[in-house]
Structures are given as structure tokens and as C-alpha cells.
Amino acid sequence: HLGDVGAQGIGLFRTEFQFMVSERMPRTGEQIQLYADVLAAAGEKPVTFRTLDVGGDKVLAYVPTEREENPALGWRALRIGLDRPALLRTQVRALIEAGEGKHLRIMFPLVTVAQEFIAARELVEKELAVAKGRGRQGPAKLEMGVMIEAPAIAFAISMLAGKADFLSIGTNDLMQYFFAADRANARVSDRYDILSAPALKFLRYIREEAARAGLPLSVCGEAAGKPLEAMALIALGYDRLSMPAAGLGPVKRMLRSLDAQAAHGVIESLLTSEQSSIRADLAAWAKSEGVAL
Ligand code: PEP
Ligand code: MG
């Protein structure tokens, strides 16, 4: 439905869904088929495949795991991929096979220190060499990215310069860890607001660091698909947003009525606010300017 909704590509393809709806580990052939179908359907539009992001709240019945006191802070995402390289390797092999002759973008979830990304990148490069050794040409273009979800990696962006090809902020996890508030616990998940000076200053810092490192940066968490939050991100200088399909229409409508320069001025002044949320101020400004929210 990319054409129908007016998207320029897929910023976050959650590969774990195939694993979650399956009663056993999807075979390599099944993985290749899915990725190839997605790439074929997307045509010239780029697709960013996020490698298996399980653990935490996403459990696979057929992968035995130990009970953890704090699953969100536990053995999940790329941590599992690096500790169980056979799992990640199979997936990477499937992606490389499906991406033969195509533009392939792979990103890794919950990278916490730069070394984890470097290890993941090496694993991909090894698999690419294996494919080439078997006479495959490999993807026409291969890019590898880092999801910014753990606050620690946000302070290590300079270490990713020249190593990563792109960055993508997962605001769902980044805010959960930033505010120490479980995203799945209704008692606390709405207690803190991404539209607050501390969170927005953090996002401004990440944008500046990515620019200094020369790394393309996008936002792929839920926040990007909400018009007011998207307006704040644009005001902070973000220019690549990825969202659920239903968010595209409302966000585009907001964008077409927005003077980004004016929004930049207003957000900068609101970043000094001592209130726990600047949501109401931003919404009032948008209303006064005729921004379609
Ligand atoms: C995020 O954390 O913002 C994200 C995009 O990944 P997920 O929601 O799948 O954890
Ligand atoms: Mg996440």
C-alpha cells in the first residue's frame, strides 16, 4: 500500500512479526520469501529491515528464555542476536539473498554501545563474503544503521561516524529508558511527555550530533506519526519521519500548513519552559498559526 498512502519508503520493517506469528522458527527459505516479496512490492522505494527484535515484551514461544526481573532492561533485541549469532546469521543470510542486486538497508535494534554495532556489521560483512564466495553478486547497495533507543548510544554517535550508514531513533524505547517509565505499563506510560523540555533537548542534541557525524537520521517511533509530535520534530530540524501508514495523511496535512522556520523559533523558546509538558503551548501556537492538527 506504499503508493496508496503516499509513503516514500519503509523506515521500519519489523522482521520479528514473522517470528511472532509462527509456531516454530521461520525457515531460511520462508524468511527469504517474505523479504523478497516486500522488496518487490516496494519497487524503487527503500525498505529498512530491522533485525529480529524479541525479548522484553515480545516473547517467542519456541525460544526458551529465563524469567527476568526487568525484561525491558534484559536480554533482548541485538543482545540476543550477538549472543546467539546463528539466529542473526540466518536472518542476515536471508536478507542478503533477498536483496541480491537490490538496495538493502538493515538496522539493528537496541544498540547500546558502538562496539555492538561494529560486531553486527562484521557479521553482515562475513555473510556477504560467504554469499560472494558462492558466486552471488550481493545487494547492489548495502547500508547498515543503528537504532537510537538506549540513551547511552545517543552519547556515542561520534563513534559511529564512518562506521554506520544511518541512524534511526526509536522513540518508544528511547523515551521509556529516558523517563524510566515502562512503555507497557499504563500507570506510568503516559505520566511523562515527549513534548517536554528535557526530552526535546535530548532529541535536539541527537540531531546535532548526527549532523556533526555526517550521519543521516530519521525517527521511527510512534511519536513521528502524531501530527503535534511530528511538528515538534520538524521544528527541531528532523526531516525524515517513519510512521504507521495511518499517520501519513494527518502528518502530511500538518506539514503542508506548517512554516517550519516559525516552528523552529517557537520550540527554541519553549525549551526553556519549566513545565512538565509544553504540549498545550505547542498546540495553542499551532492553532494560532492555522497549522492543521
Ligand atoms: C521504538 O522503540 O520506538 C521502535 C520503533 O521499536 P519498537 O516499537 O518495535 O520497539
Ligand atoms: Mg524499540
Question: In words, what does this structure look like?
Answer:
With 293 residues, the chain is an alpha/beta fold. Helix content is 48%, strand content 10%. The protein has helices spanning 2-5, 16-20, 28-42, 78-83, 85-98, 114-133, 151-154, 171-178, 186-189, 197-213, 227-235, 245-256, 260-270, 279-289; strands spanning 10-14, 47-50, 103-108, 141-148, 166-169, 217-219. It has a 6-stranded parallel sheet with strand order 1-2-3-4-5-6. The protein is globular and about 60 Å long. The chain starts with a helix and ends with a helix. The model has no long low-confidence stretch (mean pLDDT 96). Phosphoenolpyruvate binds next to strand 1 and helix 8.
| Broad shape | globular
Give the assembly state of these chains: single chain
State which percent range the strand residues make up.
5-15%
Mean pLDDT reading: 96
Order of helices and strands: HEHHEHHEHEHEHHHEHHHH
Bound molecules: phosphoenolpyruvate, magnesium ion
Walk across the major sheet and give the strand order.
Answer: 1-2-3-4-5-6
Measured distance between first and last alpha carbons = 24 Å
**Sheet with the most strands?**
6 strands, parallel
* Percent range of helical residues: 40-55%
Summed up, the helix count is 14
